[in-house]
Amino acid sequence: MVVFRFCFMKKIITVIMLCWATLVCGQETFSGTIIDSESGEALPYANVGVVGKNIGTVTDIKGEFSLKIDAEYDADTLMMSMIAYEDLVFVVRDFKEQLSNNSTFKLTSKTTDLQEIVVSGSQLKSKILGNKTKSKNIRGHFIADELGSEVGIIIKIKKSPTYIDKFHASIAENKYGLLKFRLNFYTVKDKMPHENILTENIIVETQIKEGVLTVDLSEYNIVVEDDFMVSLEWVEDLGEDGLFFSMSFFGSPVISRQTSQAYWKKLKPIGIGFSVTAKY
Fewest CB atoms less than 10 Å from the CB: which of 160, 201, 215, 222? Predict the structure, then answer.
């Protein structure tokens, strides 16, 4: 659900996103490590979660994770995923059984056919696409900093193919200090995010207290041929201080999910201050 908090003295409207209740009674904690199947190296920021159940997390810098799962989900599906790797899928009860014997899980890298991209800056037109709001009076935040939680918008392109040069996020207030996110790009199916199009992680760090966070994407050669979704994802626990993005009642609506492998939800008519500089 979406909760609106009105403060008439300061004329601030706060939109609280990702407010879904999760039952915690009787949960057990299950811990493990995710590594690369060939090199044996730890895989930081891999996603682990019960599909569609708002039960998930992200591995830490050592590839380690800890997840609470109630027995009522034993027949559900648990997925481990990582950009540039094949998904690893279990029935939850089988995942628990494997953990009792071996707490290390191996992901296999994908074989990707890289598309040759030729970009001539002098021939391209630049345009900012998305929600360009910088409002300080209408702002939104996550109800909790659950690892794997994402928020983003669908961006409609003007011409195919389109080259994504920069990402912009309007921060109304940052009480944390250093922020760390993963930036994700998805294809769109049935007006909702579908598959991640990236071939490597884009980890974003900033200490901006208020203003526009801009991420230079030129080195990643991100090219889209249709509308796409861009999102920010929590990948490190930051505590309970608070982060607020600029919001508006116009533009592309917020699409979000509570944690890794959860289902996406669309929050109308609220838009978040995310945009990209596109070239075509």
Answer: 160
The residue among 105, 109, 119, 104 whose CA lies nearest residue 200 is 109
User: Nearest to residue 29, comparing CAs of 73, 60, 70, 68?
Assistant: 68
The b-or-e profile of 243-254 (16+ CB within 10 A means b, else e) is bbbbbbeebbbb
**Considering the entire predicted model, what is its pTM?**
0.88
Joined together, the tokens standing for residue 204 give 């974003």
Report the topology of domain 28-107.
Answer: Immunoglobulin-like (2.60.40)
pLDDT in tens, 34-84: 999 999 999 999 999 999 999 999 999 999 999 999 999 999 999 999 999
Residue 55 and residue 41 in contact, taking contact as beta carbons nearer than 8 Å: no
Residue 279: alpha-carbon gap to chain centroid? 23
In the CATH hierarchy, which top-level class contains the domain 121-279? mainly beta
Domain boundaries, the chain: 28-107, 121-279
- Kindly tell me the sign of the dihedral angle through the C-alpha atoms of 21, 253, 193, 179: negative
pLDDT one-digit tens code per residue, 194-220: 999 999 999 999 999 999 999 999 999
- Please, which residues have CB within 8 angstroms of residue 116's CB and are 6 or more apart in sequence? none
